[in-house]
Amino acid sequence: MTDLSELTKATEHLEPPLAALDMSALRANAADLVRRAGGKPVRLASKSIRCRAVLDIARATPGFAGVMGYSLREAIWLVRNGVTDVLLGYPTADRTALAELAAEPALVEAITLMVDGPEQLALARRTVGDVPLRVCLDVDASLRIGRLHLGVRRSPLRTPADAAALANTAAAQGFRVVGVMFYEAQIAGLPDSSPAVRLVKRRSAAELARRRVAVVAAVQAATGPLEIVNSGGTGSLEVSSAAASVTEVTAGSGLYVPTLFDGYRAFQPRPALYFALPVVRRPARGIATLFGGGYVASGPAGRSRLPSPPRGLRLLGTEGAGEVQTPVRGPAAEALRVGDRVWFRPAKAGEVLERFETVHLVQDGAVVASVPTYRGAGQTFG
């Protein structure tokens, strides 16, 4: 665990709110992700990083290859700044960005679009004409037991026949079908909170392993060899990389390690990303009020999406993390004075950096660089 007193000392010349990244923890996490991938290349999920400098640091680490972007505009920006391989993790309906992509051959070769239905293909074809864009098929990786659906609601593609039909449609319209992707959120994004959860995760992994082989075979029979068979996330690297049909795995949150990863048993990463808030008032004994802090993570509303203060402090149940102020209480609150700072961990990874223009890289007790986030670089992609 990062020594928060060292972060305080390293950043004492900076005014909070601020974001800081423990580089020793980041590098240890990067090495562990590569280890857990078992020799399969790790594609970086940019939505969980949102800082080009950190993407570059990870990309330079042996074992990482390529970026999974979340926006076509983002992908174009990354390629123009040196990234040579971007797989979009989600479909796009951005016609302006599609036209920009199609106008530059270098972008066409570096960016792979994600599709899961003919409507996306039709929109792209209407926009770009006959440019042979690269596409990857997003295949549903959820577990279904009767009418029970365990996993996220992503793609309508599920069976080998579904995937082969869309691959044939894409090829007939002049697209290059280069890959398939399976994101098993019910494995990668679910903490090992009980024996029942672990049983469901094992059953889901076994079902997906069988179906993935069949889907890949069907698509390759339809349109030829695939460059990409992508699967996994930080929480499921071992499971996904063990599949012979998988050519690469994806991870991003595992570099920063937000609190949502605290409940996993398969690995023990080190928290690396923190943000500091200043104490601005003492409204009552045992309570300190901090400036800012309402950096609530996306997903189902609840306490798990709130940022977490350090041991000895807790959020107030009636206020949580506030828009412009966050009160905390607990044994450590009485010692806090106006001007002190309190370090938090975000519930999820990269999205908290949308609230900061800069992230300060801390190594050996000193800030070694202060680099722009996406926001600090003047970029917001949704």
Would you write up a description of this structure?
With 382 residues, the protein is an alpha/beta fold. It folds into two domains: 148 residues, D-serine dehydratase-like domain (Lyase, Ornithine Decarboxylase, Chain A, domain 1), CATH 2.40.37.20; 182 residues, TIM Barrel. 31% of the residues lie in helices and 24% in strands. Helix 7 links the parallel strand 5 and strand 6.
Blueprint (SSEs and pairs):
Layout lengths: L3 H7 L7 E5 H14 L5 E4 L6 H8 L4 E6 L2 H9 L5 E3 L6 H8 L2 H6 E5 L2 H11 L5 E6 L3 E3 L2 E3 L9 H13 L3 E7 L2 H4 L6 H29 L4 E4 L5 H5 L6 E4 L1 H4 L16 E12 L2 E5 L22 E2 L9 E5 L11 E4 L13 E6 L2 E7 L10
Parallel strand pairs: 1-17, 2-3, 2-11, 3-4, 4-5, 5-6, 6-9, 9-10, 10-11
Antiparallel strand pairs: 1-12, 7-8, 12-13, 12-16, 13-15, 14-15, 17-18
Helix pairs in contact: 5-7, 8-10
Helix-strand sequence: HEHEHEHEHHEHEEEHEHHEHEHEEEEEEE
Mean pLDDT score, rounded? 93
Dominant shape: globular
* CATH C-level class of the largest domain: Alpha Beta
The main β sheet shows up as:
8 strands, mixed
**Count of DSSP E strands?**
18
Which fold name is given in CATH as the topology of the largest domain? TIM Barrel
Q: State the distance separating the first and last CA atoms.
A: 32 Å
CATH homology superfamily of the largest domain: Alanine racemase
Radius of gyration: 22 Å
Number of helices: 12
Oligomer: single chain
CATH architecture of the largest domain: Alpha-Beta Barrel
Helix content: 25-40%
For the record, the count of structural domains works out to 2
The chain-level structural class is alpha/beta
